[in-house]
Design a protein that fits this description.
Elements lengths: L1 H18 L11 E11 H9 L11 E5 L4 E4 L6 H5 L7 E8 L5 E11 L2 E9 L4 E3 L13 E6 L10
The structure holds zinc ion (2 copies).
Length: about 160
């Protein structure tokens, strides 16, 4: 048994050489991206542009439409949950950081912010009783009161006291 084990790497290389097979190629990596655009229902967009059949009541298929007009499908993860359930975010111009997976247009959201009057704003949910931040709407983990949406300017210039 021991002999077989020791020989096996040689055996594999031998087989590869004989068969002319290349060693397995590396798995393609997801691509990190920063997208600017809006949340849209992809089904409705395809209906508008390409007459895809659409039921009046349908589960929305949410995705991002970038400024350049490219579409990405949103994966429903906890960090993206707010983009699915809070329609107020559908009205905003967003900057979304995330990952696109090889051979797909699937987007995993890592973080997002809004652009308002040309200024980047942090978007998050907040309980001002417990001072707890949340990534999606719902009830505060601590006091169970509903958290509120905060859109806060990241332009810190205005908050720095002048010397
Ligand atoms: Zn829809
Ligand atoms: Zn609370």
């Amino acid at each position: 048994m021991r002999n077989v084990k020791r020989l096996s790497p040689f055996f594999i290389i031998l087989v590869l050489l004989i068969s002319g097979a290349k060693p397995p190629t590396e798995k393609p990596e997801p691509k990190e991206v920063e997208l600017r655009g809006n949340i849209v229902c992809l089904a409705e967009e395809m209906h508008t542009h390409y007459n895809v059949e659409l039921f009046k009541t349908h589960p929305h298929l949410y995705g991002v439409k970038t400024e350049a007009g490219k579409y990405y499908t949103l994966l429903r993860t906890s960090l993206a949950e707010a983009l699915f359930v809070d329609e107020r975010l559908h009205e905003k111009d967003l900057i979304i950081n995330g990952r696109i997976f090889p051979n797909t247009q699937l987007l995993e959201v890592i973080r997002f912010a809004s652009i308002k009057d040309g200024v980047v704003h942090a978007l998050y949910y907040y309980c001002d009783t417990c001072y707890i931040r949340a990534v999606a709407p719902g009830n505060c983990d601590c006091c169970q009161a509903p958290v509120v949406l905060i859109e806060k300017s990241l332009n810190v210039d205005s908050t720095i006291p002048s010397p």
